[in-house]
């Protein structure tokens, strides 16, 4: 699936090449803050029906691109598709978030785990990737922007698999971590091999960059993070296909709450690190140097301010990073479902406009 990109700024920034402006995309950019997304979800009937239908997934992936001049598309899916493919029975209850019918808590539960057959159980995801790639091609035969594929990290998937749902204290998975680390290591190894196979399948289907969401890495103590999250992200990256059709496929790693471990994260083999909003962009760049690109990191809550205030926050973040190459603008976590659309419009416009002046 070789196509010429109309806009490759995002990929060049990940390679730390000079760009005319700072590219921008937003975590959860296809989501509940958009009325068109709400309409599509209502048509689909449920979140799972939406995510597992390539037509709907393509539709909602393209919606934010039709509204904002973003520099990348990201596959619409969920980070929990892998444990669902393992047979854990994923569902989404209104107002409660994801839940697994068969959590993994005993030796027998762990013994039953296996790397899923990606081609069979997650074909709806790879079909969506291929379909989105085709839909991104315009009438001139050029692809509008690159497509990002993604997965949850081995540790983040494990938290949901053991807890059975989201958690505020991670009591069950941390009890396993400290009391039966052997069981947790087996889960994490299976998850790492599954995530690598899943991301490689997305790359084969047409993803032009991939991202690992370590959403709960920051819940770990120092020392435990390196053992139970960092090491397994490194394993995933080591198993990834880094090139397709002669073109490099960059990898972004994002640990929410991972500012303490930036230097170690920069050594796991990723091309870029995502930063949450607690990290100062300028100081992070000084620490990391030119080892990796950086992505981030406006506080998502800043979008609740008036558009002029949003623009001021964008300028402050861009000034903090400076005119150096290797920056992709993003939020420090996913966009809030109640974020005003006018604020998102202001954010994207200010990133493009102000970053051009910095580069001049």
From TrEMBL:
It comes from the Bacteria. GO terms for cellular component: cytosol. It is found in: Cytoplasm. This is Uroporphyrinogen decarboxylase. Belongs to the uroporphyrinogen decarboxylase family. One of its GO terms (biological process) is protoporphyrinogen IX biosynthetic process from glutamate. Catalyzes the decarboxylation of four acetate groups of uroporphyrinogen-III to yield coproporphyrinogen-III. Homodimer. It catalyses: uroporphyrinogen III + 4 H(+) = coproporphyrinogen III + 4 CO2. CDD domains: URO-D. Residues 23-32, 148-164 form the Uroporphyrinogen decarboxylase (URO-D) domain. Substrate binds at residues 28-32, 78, 160, 215, 333. Pathway: Porphyrin-containing compound metabolism; protoporphyrin-IX biosynthesis; coproporphyrinogen-III from 5-aminolevulinate: step 4/4.
């Amino acid at each position: 699936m070789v196509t010429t990109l109309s806009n490759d700024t995002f990929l060049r920034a990940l390679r730390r090449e000079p760009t005319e402006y700072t590219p921008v995309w937003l975590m959860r950019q296809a989501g509940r803050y958009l009325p068109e997304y709400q309409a599509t979800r209502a048509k689909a009937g449920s979140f799972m029906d939406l995510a597992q239908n390539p037509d709907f997934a393509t539709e909602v992936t393209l919606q934010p691109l039709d509204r904002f001049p973003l520099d990348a598309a990201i596959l619409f899916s969920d980070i929990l598709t892998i444990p669902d493919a393992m047979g854990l029975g994923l569902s989404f209850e209104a107002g409660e978030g994801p839940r697994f019918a068969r959590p993994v808590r005993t030796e027998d539960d762990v013994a039953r785990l296996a790397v899923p057959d990606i081609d069979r159980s997650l074909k709806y995801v790879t079909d969506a990737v291929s379909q989105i790639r085709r839909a991104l091609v315009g009438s001139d035969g050029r692809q509008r922007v690159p497509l990002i594929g993604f997965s949850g990290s081995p540790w983040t998937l494990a938290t949901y698999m053991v807890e059975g749902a989201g958690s505020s204290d991670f009591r069950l998975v941390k009890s396993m971590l400290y009391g039966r680390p052997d069981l947790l290591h087996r889960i994490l190894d299976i998850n790492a091999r599954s995530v690598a196979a899943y991301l490689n399948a997305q790359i084969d289907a047409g993803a032009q960059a991939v991202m690992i969401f370590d959403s709960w890495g920051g819940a770990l103590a120092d020392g435990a993070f390196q053992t139970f999250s960092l090491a397994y992200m490194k394993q995933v990256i080591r198993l990834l296909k880094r090139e397709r059709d002669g073109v490099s496929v960059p990898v972004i790693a994002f640990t929410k709450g991972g500012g303490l471990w930036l230097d170690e994260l920069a050594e796991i083999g990723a091309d870029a690190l995502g930063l949450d909003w607690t990290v100062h962009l300028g100081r992070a760049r000084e620490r990391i140097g030119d080892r990796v690109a950086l992505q981030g990191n406006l506080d998502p809550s800043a979008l609740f301010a008036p558009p002029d205030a949003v623009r001021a926050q964008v300028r402050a973040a861009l000034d903090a990073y400076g005119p150096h190459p290797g920056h992709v603008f993003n939020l420090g976590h996913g966009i809030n479902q109640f974020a005003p659309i006018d604020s998102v419009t202001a954010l994207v416009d200010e990133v493009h406009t102000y970053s051009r002046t910095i580069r001049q």
